[in-house]
User: Fold this.
Amino acid sequence: MAAIVSLLLLCVCSCFISVYNAQATISLVPALYIFGDSTVDGGNKLPSGTPYGIDLNTTAPIRWTNGETIADFVAIFLGLPLVPPYIDMSQAGISRMGVNYAFAGCGIMPQTGQNGWSLDGQIEKFNSTLRNNLTKMFSDPDLLQHLKHSIFLFSFGINDYIQLYLPKNSGTLTKLSPDAFAQFLQNELSVGLTTLYGWGARKFLVNNIWPLGCTPWYTNASDPLAICCNETINQLVRPYSNKLPVMLKELQSKLSGAVFSHSNDFEFVVDLKEHPTNYGNMRVLQLLLERKFLLLKLPPFSFHDFQSNILLFFIFFGVQG
Ligand SMILES: *[C@@H]1O[C@H](CO)[C@@H](O)[C@H](O)[C@H]1NC(C)=O
Ligand SMILES: *[C@@H]1O[C@H](CO)[C@@H](O)[C@H](O)[C@H]1NC(C)=O
Ligand SMILES: *[C@@H]1O[C@H](CO)[C@@H](O)[C@H](O)[C@H]1NC(C)=O
Ligand SMILES: *[C@@H]1O[C@H](CO)[C@@H](O)[C@H](O)[C@H]1NC(C)=O
Ligand SMILES: *[C@@H]1O[C@H](CO)[C@@H](O)[C@H](O)[C@H]1NC(C)=O
Assistant:
């Protein structure tokens, strides 16, 4: 495991360095722009209550997890600070190292989430950053270089399933086959990615989605302490993860100069559940395994239990290999 991780990190690392060694900075890329849901929300919508933030050792806003999010670990890995949330315009309006547009509860489709923070809304907010803030900080050619070398991270999809597909009687979308719903979401996502490409973005890191049936919300309802997976749910969400690399590869062949990487959250969580000891001493997983998560009064809605410091080991699978 460790060997695979370092190999992949080395690959990611050398790819970034090779495109960015012209700039004498400590960070591997100039900036990280984050789009998504609670998996990467950095303070746009704040959670409250234990155990959120119990391991967050910074003054950054509390995330929907015990500590840092996947996006934070990506930032740290890239040598960047934790990027400010868009809602904090005093910081976001002057940030040269990225902005976080993610908002808990939001998804790819506009029907998800609240107040226009779904994919489209977040892209509009980036548009505002671009036109109202970044253009003031950079000359036109510098801005193009900035956008070209920055990472655009996307972590969406779970809420589309939770809100629009899995509930019974929740409208016409539930009548689509699992394949068709995954395709429907990914068509929408690819429109968003293409818009950002049109504005100069070139490096994209896109997640697939977790095996939702393994999260406490969907595990055995008659035995909430059982740590097992609902395979019915997992089979319904699986096509999203199977299709995503194909979609990204197609997009990459269409959009000249763009590079898409795919982070395989699905297999990661499956492996985590099957081989927890491979991942060392992980606080949240440990709590789960010790079945103490209910004692901590985690709301049943919280599938964030799976997010924890272990995500340092997050693995990127480059579309180009
Ligand atoms: C956060 O602080 C606690 C208590 O000081 C410490 O045990 C833990 O290792 C720290 N975590 C990180 C990620 O620095
Ligand atoms: C950034 O843009 C917003 C409008 O979206 C504006 O209110 C703010 O003053 C700008 N900040 C700076 C530093 O230009
Ligand atoms: C982006 O902002 C510009 C300038 O404010 C505006 O003309 C354009 O319609 C916006 N595009 C989108 C997709 O929001
Ligand atoms: C798994 O999910 C399906 C679909 O929501 C549900 O019908 C079934 O009861 C669940 N199984 C368990 C063990 O909770
Ligand atoms: C769910 O829990 C009940 C009660 O403990 C048990 O009888 C049943 O087999 C469990 N179902 C699954 C799918 O694990």
Confidence is low (pLDDT under 50) at residues 1-24, 287-321. The chain has ten helices and five strands. The domain at 29-318 is CATH 3.40.50.1110 (Rossmann fold).
